[in-house]
Amino acid sequence: MKPIRLTILGILTPLLLGCSSSAGSYPLDLPAEDYITTLEINDIDDFTICVFNDLHISVLTNLTDEIAYYEKCLISNGGILPSLIVLNGDSFMGATKSQIERFFDWIDSKNIPFAYVYGNHDLQGTYSSTFIDEMVKSCEHSVLLNSLNDNVFGDSNYVLNIEEIGTPNTLKWQLYFYDSNTYYGVDYDVIHEDQIAWYEKQQQALEDTGTPDIPSLTFMHIPTEEFEEAYDIIGQNVTSGYDGTDTESLWYMGESISWGYQETDFYETMQEHGNNKAIIVGHDHVNLTDWHYDKDGDSLDNMMHLIFGLKTGRGIYHDTRIMGASFYTLKDSNEFDIKWMNVPYEDDAFEITPEYLVGLGEGAIS
Hints:
This protein has helices at 63-74, 97-109, 131-138, 193-208, 225-233, 266-273, 354-361; strands at residues 5-8, 36-41, 48-52, 84-88, 114-117, 158-164, 170-177, 183-184, 187-188, 216-219, 240-242, 250-253, 276-281, 287-293, 304-308, 324-330, 336-342, 350-351. By secondary structure, the protein is α/β, with parallel strands linked by helices. The protein has one domain (5-361): Metallo-dependent phosphatases (Purple Acid Phosphatase, chain A, domain 2), CATH 3.60.21.10. A hairpin with a 5-residue loop joins strand 16 (324-330) and strand 17 (336-342). Helix 2 (97-109) packs parallel to helix 3 (131-138) and helix 4 packs parallel to helix 6 (266-273). The radius of gyration is 19 Å and the shape is globular.
């Protein structure tokens, strides 16, 4: 892996829960750059992201065994360590403070930048609502930025700029991380309107600096309603499939889609700006998808990938046939490659192919 230098553009204090502004009015008081961390790299084509979803570390977890498994996941992509690790929600559920401390000691010891995203279970444990934030920010290699008492709802809304080193540096990609929040009554929550306004402010900042066309990926935990739409339109509600001639969509659906309590304009706002290439989620442990979805229906030129990534580890329910780590390699062409690595606890890791995934739905693989 080529060397990476980490620069923090905002020095921010530990959080309290963000507050949503009144409906229709979102005076976002902090400048866009206060939410941005920058990674300086030598070559964008070598930049690979490893995503862990739904670890669900709890008081029942044997953390020695699980950390050994996470190590195996990290090197499952041909033995090459990733450039960035993303913990994409529900890393913890009913964990103790000592387990959380041990986990972050381990991940920080890898000397790899890592991003933390809150899921709907992370704050359920024997610790305060700010404990995880304080732990993450104490790690040398964390890229999390989240301000104290800002007026953007949630605890992990921030941006990672990927810059190629040069004279001057060149901004190649942006990675957006969102807190998709927890619950709304008995239902799951959604991205709030002030978070959408925050995204628009970040996009406006790009335009103001003369670099409006920077590709991005979005990482969050709970899926949007568009995942359900894509399953209906592209997937035709069939358990698995691969369209190798049209959209090139690929999917296996082992459970229903648990999106939030209402529809939002989040997808439409990103599609209007045209920079975001994918929404990458976890949450539903036995769904694995790469739907190429264009909601406005005009063409695939403005589509986004809707991705349920692999669940990582055996915390609560899982399917060992689709469990491991997801890898995303960024390209200078504004595209990215996806590799899903199934990582058994005992046997060798292997890449999940379209044939394998379709076979699951057809009952050919048990």
